[in-house]
Amino acid sequence: MALKRRSELAQTVPFNTWRDYPPMNTSVGTMLHNKTGSWRYIKPIYEDKVPACQNACPAGNDIEGWIKFLQRGDYEGAYRHLKREEPFPAILGRVCFKFCESACNRLTLDHSVSIKELERFVGDQVTPSKPHPDLPADHGKTMAVVGSGPAGMSAAYFGRLLGFKVALFEKLPEMGGILRVGIPGYRLPRNVVEAEFEGLHTMGVELFPGIAVGHDISLSELADTYDYVFLASGVHESMRLGLAGEDACPRVMSGLNMLRMVARGRDVDLGRRVVVIGGGNTAIDAARTAVRMGLDATILYRRSESEMPAHPEEIQEGREEGVHFRFLAAPERIDLNDDSTIRKLVCCEMELGPPDASGRKRPVKKPGALFDVETDSILTAIGELPVFDYLSDMVAVQDRVVAVDDALQARSEGHGKAKIFAGGDIVNIPHTVVHAVASGKRAAVAMDCDRIGRSFGDALKEITIGQGPAISFSAYMGWKPVNPVRQNLHVVVDSEKIVYDYFRKAPPVDKKTQPGHLRKTSFEAYSRSFKNREAQEEAARCMHCGRCTECDNCLILCPDISVLVKGGGRFGYAFDYDYCKGCGVCFTECPRHAITMIDEETPLEEEV
Amino acid sequence: MKQVIKGNHAVSHGVRLCRVKVISAYPITPQTTIVEELSEMCASGELDAEFIKVESEHSAMAACVGSSSAGVRSFTATSSHGLLLMHEVLHWAAGARLPIVLANVNRAVGPGWNIGADQTDSVSQRDTGWIQFYCESNQEVLDSVIMAYKLAETIMLPVMLSYDAFFLSHTSEIVDVPDIEAVCDFLPPYQPKLKLDFSDPRMFGGITSSEYYYEGRYVMHRDGLQALEYYPQVCRDFEAVFGRAYDLLEAYRTDDAEVIMVTAGTLTSVSRIAVDHLRQRGKKVGLMKIRMFRPVPVHGWAQILGQAPKVVVVDRNLTASVGGVFAAEVQAALYPLECRPVVFPVIAGLGGRDVTPADIEGVLDYALGHEKPKDVPLFWGLKQ
After folding, report:
1. Which of A289, B29, B55, B131 is least buried, going by the fewest C-beta atoms within 10 A?
2. Which pTM was predicted?
3. What is the pLDDT of residue A354?
């Protein structure tokens, strides 16, 4: 319903003689008859845009949207809204590498909003097994998912929301893949992962643990049975050091194997001292796990700390827990005793040369600079590889990854009816949980496009968030945004578009993590979730970049009184285009860039 | 109560007695001591007014425009270049019909840099729409402040009082300072018909198209002329309370005069002495004092001056390459008469140069001895 037009209130005041002139030079009526809007050549519109955090999230998490629910105290609303774009807040709220926080516009002011902690808080508010409100009826098309890690879970979740019948196959007896057997429990408690599978089960995803595709059932059988197959088998095979003595000693093993055994409750005998070789997240996880087993753990890395691929926060936490680091050192050989125990690890000092293909400085050996390291065991964590045996040449592999197109569809030879897609660590994307979740989301949407005969490329034009590659599931589904205003999914609101004068500095909420010497004594999760009050306080730091908050700034500053409050319980404001001169003060002074100036001639649909 | 005070302090007391609410001023010699005294009155609580310090005279007048629009009695004082800097806002104040009162100490305009008495500063403002008065004594200065508010707030136009630098501003005279109760009776608090008011929101000074502007200016012209009708009433009322009166003009020994001298400001006092001397010697001379100069009391001037065959106008101001402003105005006022006197325009006393009774006698003798002026204007006392 349009607002009442003020121009209809215009009245004329008769002026026939000099006697009608007022005693002072004042107005005697209104200027409503003078529709100054006709002078305008550009005009403002209210248009919500993409906050920098959402643009930075590989999964396209609508962080600002659910923070708005959180601020209202509507925790279930926040949970539901969050899960529109990103299915597993309790998991990613614990293990995500938070690309959002690195992009947060608040960094220019003080510190980023603690989005990950808020997501964890929201994820813990609702049991995943509570029935999902947006579940559609089945349309009859089926999807098989190979691998129950984050990519497979995500494809299954979005697949169900798109009406597919989904079967999720896992080789191991427990569901969860890397979340279950790779990431240690002190970072991601088992029950959190289990709860998400209960959620998927409630949504109707059929779970098949202990079924190894390629062994218990062949890929071609799956392809014959299902309409779509999503491959997300992950990388679980450690790269070998290639050193003498590596295979002869039972106390030389892969970090991934060690983590998997610990996770599954097996005994692992590593002696008293352990050296972990590598600089990635597996190395850190293995070392921190070893510390919790009471071992003296040292990470040996051939470059320096700044080149470590592991997340800096994890490195810091490992150091607090007593993990030792030996940088610029590479293993040369392993000397064994006669009983196949380790006598010593011979290492070579390294120095950094010119950058290599990865852009990092290439480590080169210092000639003759050998030194010995005393240790009881050695864990290797220099990288993981996928195992592709089960593909039986049905799917093209290139450079150790499954070759996929923009829709994540694999190039497969004509076996069975299924169209095969792939995601997670077996395709060429960064090896993080959130990237895996993003790939499952993308593949599910691509499958749905295929099902209904729509070009995925065309769909991308409407659902790509900012510069991509993240996509909006809400936009694909046509779900309504939080603010009932025009949406622009393509313009990202970065710090240059924020008017910082309107924001006050406020330090982030410190929920005080346990000190390292205490937390290393336990495999229990060492950090707690926010309490309600803390979550509210932290959520209040969100600047709501690109999204209207009804802050009234435009209303107050419009020199032509042409911003009208919609009122009657309706959200936001309306411009009175009869009088708005298009001066742009509202646009310039909107603290969060939720107003856009457009050419006067641009056609617009009716106000939402 | 009678006090010995300088002309500037006479102004300050006048402002105090009128219970002005806003004073905004910027100091300039020889005006400074007016506002010095006022700021002390504000500081001591003797005067309950907002004293606004500003960075220029332009701002001083602009602040008065604001405060007067808000409906309170407002005052400023200045001189010479300060008045010239106000020029734009003087037009605005009159056009906005704001009853502001301004005291101007007549001072020469540079260069050469000069702080002496000279009326060029205020006669330059004759087209701004302000009512103008010229005073010849400290008592007249004080009384004129009170009468100015009475007039301004009735006809809704601003009033400028002018008096000569140093001859009055810094010279002490005996002044009867009225009791404030009497002034309160004569001049009640200002009750604006229109003002900035939240309960009656209006735009002030907005765009006025050619459809309406002309009529607005006509109304301003018409109301300004009413000063000529209303001021004599103010004068009578003032006289009834305070026993003193200052009419639109003053005619001194003009009956049967062959030559009437026309002056404004302190020259008038000097001229009275000269007229008396010449009368003692049997010469038929008289004097007309210009008090109200805007609007011009044309009929009054013509009535007095039309009786005499010759008129001498002494201007302590100069429109270079034209002559004295008062002379031009007098000539214009006499023009409609069927039988016009001969006018002798004289320039004298620019930049504070002393004009003595002997000078005035000389000027009058010159007029008595000539059918017509040889030089127009006659630069009296010019070093040849």
Report:
1. B55
2. 0.75
3. 87
